[in-house]
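Renewal narrative, Specific Aim 1. Our central claim is that a sequence can be written position by position from structural information alone. The example that follows is taken directly from our test logs and has not been curated for this report. It begins with the structure tokens describing the chain, in the order in which they were read.
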């Protein structure tokens, strides 16, 4: 049975949820409520362990699907696209953290006047304020440049996301008959 990468991912996620869901059979028996309690323990144990074995079959099927998804992702370029997305996200975060979230420097004419006033105050022996005047190294022009760069990176991300969507829908994997059987048993297909 062939399914798209997108469908395959949804199936393996559904299997993951089914694996985590509670068993129908309890792992305990209240022996006080049964006259033939030893037989009830054995019957319940058998049903419970059958459910656990079924969950283990689902685990195998899930990871077989994941392995096929991984292989196909490498072959069709999805892995490379995901790496590009992660790179763009990291670049955006870095630019925002180290440039866009920092204050920008005032115009040189304004800074010159402020600096001159500061120097005059520092030369006054009665001045007891701060002796420094920190100025951002990020100009308005640089800030605007990096804002444009972030917008470009976001457009690139959107383009890659579109390509990924197309690859995930267009690319198919072949599910083995064992996996298909498990999926049918769980009413997932």
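The sequence written for that structure reads:
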């Amino acid at each position: 049975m062939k399914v798209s990468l997108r469908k395959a991912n949804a199936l393996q996620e559904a299997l993951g949820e089914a694996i985590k869901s509670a068993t129908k059979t309890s792992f305990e028996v209240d022996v006080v409520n049964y006259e033939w309690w030893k037989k009830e323990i054995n019957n319940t144990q058998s049903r419970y362990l059958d459910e656990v074995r079924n969950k283990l079959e689902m685990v195998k099927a899930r990871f077989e699907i994941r392995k096929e998804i991984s292989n196909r992702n490498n072959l069709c370029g999805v892995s490379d696209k995901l790496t590009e997305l992660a790179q763009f996200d990291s670049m955006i975060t870095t630019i925002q953290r180290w440039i866009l979230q920092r204050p920008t420097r005032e115009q040189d004419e304004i800074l010159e006047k402020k600096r001159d006033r500061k120097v005059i105050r520092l030369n006054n022996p009665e001045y007891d304020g701060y002796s420094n005047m920190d100025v951002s190294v990020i100009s308005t022009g640089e800030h605007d440049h990096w804002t444009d760069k972030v917008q470009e990176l976001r457009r690139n991300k959107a383009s890659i996301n579109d390509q990924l969507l197309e690859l995930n829908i267009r690319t198919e994997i072949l599910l083995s008959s064992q996996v298909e059987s498990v999926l049918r048993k769980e009413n997932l297909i």
